[in-house]
Each structure stands twice: as structure tokens, then as C-alpha cells.
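ARCHIVE CARD
Drawer: 12
Card no.: 0347
Subject: one protein chain, sequence and derived structure
Cross-reference: see card 0346
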Amino acid sequence: MGIAEKVAGIFPAPEQVPAQARAAALEQKEYLVNGRIKAWTGPRHEVFSPVSLAGRKGPERVRLGSYPLMTEKEALEALDAAAKAYDEGRGLWPTLSVEARVSHMEDFIWRMKERRSEIVNLLMWEIGKSAEDSAKEFDRTVEYIVDTINALKDLDRSSSRLSMTQGIIAQVKRAPLGVVLCMGPYNYPLNETFTTLIPALLMGNTVVFKPPKYGVLLHRPLLEAFRDSFPKGVVNTLYGEGRKIIGPLMKTGKVNVLAFIGSSKVADILRQQHPAPHRLRCVLGLDAKNAGIVLPDADVDLAVAECLTGALSYNGQRCTALKILFVHRSVQSEFMEKLVTGLEALKLGMPWEPKVKITPLPEDDKVPYLTGVIADAKKHGAKVINECGGLANGNFVYPAVVYPVNEKMRLWREEQFGPVIPVTPFSDIKEPLKYVVDSNFGQQVSVFGRDVEKIAPMLDTLVNQVCRVNVNSQCQRGPDVFPFTGRKDSAEGTLSVSDALRSFSIRTLVAAKDSDANKKLIRGILRGRKSKFLSTDFIL
């Protein structure tokens, strides 16, 4: 069967969906606020899967359920609950010991694991992510929570002693910042939302979190887990249109930390709505246009394999995806031929199919957008060099390799966030290096080559332009112990297991002059365990 026929028949009949993969409609009529799961009787937003099923009138999107369309009133109620739970740092949660907060989080992990199959299935249906990758996202998230707990224990152990310097007795620890607004992206709606929410909670902050536009229902199975694992008001949920419910929150000035993963334009709008932006800490994961640079001495087979995975894993819908490839003219023909051959070998189909690589796209406006950037590239001299590249059926788009891409094209500068691979040839290494230097983004880059004399000076240039240089491998976030951030318009703050704990807290200390009276006072506090902050307790 040819590619065109596969795309035309990509959507199955209902009876072809395996029994274990089927999803019952989930009508969410609840939200969590101030420790209560409250009933919602107002309007709801209907959720449709990117997956269509063949019917009498042709393919129809599968309806998955609905969720509340909350208003400014409920949003402010959630914010007030979080602010009350924090109580200017005097609340139960921010004053709990680290060991006690860890205990609450461990309880949450067990409750979360009980809902694994339900959440994985919803992930698959809501955003079109393969069953295999959906399961990996869940498991990686649990692993991230465990690793973050262990990192917090290490951090607390290192702070459990007093120091004496220049006549001052002090204990330096990290303290929470206040109320955190968490907003994650649709491509990793569970994992990346939790990479901000979890460290924020563990450091003693209270949280209001809004799931992304796509990937909302999968959080519903966790509402009871949040309610039962944490004190009231510590975790509160929001649902609805961001423009209507997030702006009012920012304008109150009660949000102390904005944890947002999305576009830089939206982040700028949110920050500017805060009445005291200098008091607002921002932890942001934003846009990226990561380049892959294939040098003349590269292992072409390796470079092709890494570039294919880097450009098309989850249909290229990752901030860490390779979004433009620079290939040296001396290996251009071989690279392009093998790239197209490798692409044609990728399995396309529905998310539940084993080893599927190309699946339908969740964003409603993504298909016309991709069609537009491909047309723009053609207008400026490029061609789609693979058979049926860009062919669409419903929310499914077959990947397109576009060549040669130049600075006149939108694909040169815009983050396509989808299954389109722009490729441009180069003769002088200064060309791709200039691209990276001139780019508005500075997250990562991949370099493919074997010549020490060529790669070494490139590394010295690139590390001052991006925050991760990948040698002979695709761009990626993990392992989560490594720092994850970016320069320019790509990020603000650093996310990783240990860095995130620091991003959602601030160093603070208790200090006193080295006098007999002060020593007696401090000794009394420590021996009587009168303070949770000033303490030498050691977590095992």
C-alpha cells in the first residue's frame, strides 16, 4: 500500500479499536479548591480526541467528555484558598518540616500510581501520543517525583548544621516563596506540569494549577489524590479559557511565582499583568528552534537516525525537537536520501498501535498552519522532497522534508512544532554558527561529526549561545538530574531535579552574634525542637 493510500485510510472503524484501548466519555463536573472537590453546574467545554473513527459520513473525531469552563469568580476563589493556606508563610504547609512534607508527597505517589492505567489511556486519546510514550510519560513523572524527594533530602541534610563565621552563628536553609501559578504544555501535560508543581509543593509553596488546553481530562483521576494527600488549600485546580481566568489572577498581585511552559508571547503578557513584576519570580520554559548541524566527517547513518528521532518523536511536538537541519554539501546527497528512506520506514497510525511513530495532531489549527509554512517555503524556492510530504487527512499530517530552506522562509525562523523537517545546505561552518548566534532562541543544538579539531572550537562558541550542546545525539531534556533551561527567548529559571527546588525557593538564614546568651537561646531552641526551621534534625 502506498503512502497516499495509508493516509487516506488512516482512521479505523470503531470496532477496530482494541478493547483495552477504548475510552469511555469522562464528564468532569468537579474542581478542587480549598481541600474540597466542588461540584460544577456551569458551562463545560467538550473535549474531542485528535483521533477520528470511520463512520457513515466519513471520519468523525471521538468525543472524550467535557470539563468545567470556570469564571473569574472561581479562579479568584482558588487563588484566595492558596493564599490563605500559605498565610504569608505562617500556614501549616510552609511551616511543616521537610520530613513531613516529604511524607505527604510519598502518600500522593502511591495514590497516583493506583490511577496509572486510566491516566495513560487518557493521555493517549487526548493528545494523540502513542500508548508506549504515554506510559513512559507517566512512569517518568513518578520517577521524577521520587528523585526530587531524594534531592530535597540531600539538600536538607547539607543544611542541617550551624556555621560560625566572623563571630556570627547562622543556619542557612531554603524557604518557600508563596503562591505558585503552574501552567504546563499540552505535549507533556502530565510530566512538564509536574516538573514545576512537585518541586513547588515540596519547598513549601501553595499552588494553583491550570492544565493545558489539550490534556485536561487526564488530571481528573488525581483530584482525590491531591485532596487526600495535602492540607486544604495547598493544591487548587483551574479549568477554562486562560484569557478569562488567568489575567484576573495575575492582576491581584497575589501570585508570587509564575511557572509557565509555553510561548514567550503569552509569558510576556502574563508577567506584564502583575502589578509588581519585580516581585514576581518567573520559571519559564518557552520557545525553541533547535538546530542540528551535520559536518562533512559525520557518521551519516548515525546522524540520520538521531535527526529523524529528534525531529519527529511525538510528531515533532517537543520544545527539544530538532526544528532545522544544516547539512554540509559534501554529504548532503547521502544524508537526504537516507533521511527520506528512514522517514518512509516509520510506522504511521493510531496511538494504540505497537511501535507507531506518526499519529494525529491534537491542535485544531495545526494542520492549516503546517500547510501554510510549507506553501511559504515553496514560494521561496524550496521543495518537499519526500513522497506525500505534508499530505493531511483530518488531524493527521504525513511528515514533510522541506529543502533547501533559506532566510526568506517562515520555516527559517518560526518554531513549527510539528512533523515538518526544514533542511538547508552549507559550505562554511560559519553559516550554521551564525544562524545559532542570530536566533532569538537559545535552548539546545546538536552537532554531528568526528573531527576533534573542528568540533572543539564549535563547542566553545555554542555553549555561549545555547544551554546544551549535544554531540552526535538529538536534543533532549533528560536525564532529569541535568539542568534544563535556555538563553534568549527560550527560558527563564532552571528546571531539573535539584535546580527546580532552588527555583521555587530562596536562601534564607537565622543569624545571631556569638555570645553566651545567644548560644543558650539557640541551644534551647534546638534541644527542645521548638523551631522547624532552626533545627539540626537529620533526615535518613
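Annotation on reverse: The first strand starts at residue 26 and ends at 27. The first helix runs from residue 3 to 8.
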